[in-house]
Protein: Pyridoxal phosphate-dependent aminotransferase
Organism: Glycomyces rhizosphaerae
Amino acid sequence: MNKTAAPLADLTQYEMVALESSHNLADAHAHQWQSAAERDVIDMLPKLWDESQTLTQAELDRQFLQNFFDFHGQTSMAANEGRSWLSYAASISMGIIATHLRLSRKSVTLIEPCFDNLYELLAHNELEVSSLPEDIVFKSPDAFAALALHEVGDALILVDPNNPTGSTSFVDDGERFRAIVRFCARHGKTLILDFSFASFLRGRRPDVYEILDDSGVTYLCIEDTGKTWPTLDIKCGILTVSADIRDEVRDLHTAVLLNVSPFAVRLLADFVTASKNDGFASVADVLDANRQVLADAIEGTELELVRPDSLVSVAWLRLHRGTATDLQERLAQHGVHVLPGTHFFWSDHRQGESYVRVALARDPEAFARSAAALRKVLTTS
C-alpha cells in the first residue's frame, strides 16, 4: 500500500506522488491512449522529424497556431500574427503574466476555487491577491452588476472553463462572457483568461479574441494542449495579448525562452488536425464513458458528482461525510490517488474539505480498474 503524508504543500506535490501509482486519478494531463487518427500521426513520426528539421521555426509555429485556433473556432486569431507566443507549458505563460503584473504594480483578483499553482505564481511575485468566488462571474444573473458590487483589483484572472468545477461563462451564446469583458473595459481592469480547458466546451466558445479586441480591453490569454491530447506530455502553451501591451510582454517572453521544440510544434499541429477530422470524438467519448463509470462507482457512497456547466476532463465530487484531507489519505493508503479540494480554495483551505477532484483523461479499461479500486475503499473502509 502507498501512503501519502498529508497535507502536502500544494496540489502538484499530490500529483507527483500519484505518478508512482497505477491508480493515478490526480493530475489532469491527458493519459488516455491515442485514437486511430492520432495513431496515424504517430506512424508518421520519422516524416515529422525530417520536416521539423527542414521547415523554419516560424513556418512551424505559424502552422500550429493556425491549426489550433481554427480547431477552437477562433478565426480572428488564426489569421492574426504577432500577438501569440509559444512556451513549453501553460504555467510558463502564467509565470510571464505574473512578472508583467508585478512590474506594472497591479493588484490582482483571482477566481476561487482554482488550481493553486496560479495563486502560487502570483504570490511568489509578491503580488497582492484577493479572492473572487466563481459564482459571482459564472452564476450571477447579471455578471456585470455582480462584478461591480465586488471589489476587483487592477487585474482580474479567470479560468474558463474552471478547473476543478467545469463552471464557465459560455452558457448563453457568450453573453455572460461579453458582460465580463464589458465590465473590465469600462473600469480599466486588465483581464487575464486561462483557457487551458476550453477544448472541452465542444464548440460553445465564440470567437473570444474578436470580442476582446472589439471591446478595447487590455487582456492576456493562456491556451494549452496538455489537458486535451495524449502526447506523453509533449505539449505547448500559448500566450496571446492585446495590441496595447504586445511589445512589453514580448520582451518578457523572449527573456524566458527562444522557441519550443520544432518537432513538438510539428507533432502537435497534426494532433490538432486529427481531432478536427474525427469531430473530437476520440477525446470526448473517452471522457463521457469514464464520467459514467465514475458515477456508477460512487453510487451509494459518501461521494456525489457535482453537475458541471461544461464536461471538462476532471470530475468535482462533493463529500457528504468526513473531510477531503482524511479521504485523500485513506485512498492513498490503498494506492488510489485523487486531489483533495482543500488547495483549490487557495485563500482558505477549509472551504475545500467537502470536495475532491478526479481526473477522467485515462484509458477506459485502466480507469474502470481505478474506479473499482476507489469504490472498494469507499465501501469497505
Remarks:
- The first strand starts at residue 23 and ends at 24.
- The longest helix spans residues 281-298.
- The chain has a mean pLDDT of 96.
- Residues 148 and 261 are 43 Å apart (CA to CA).
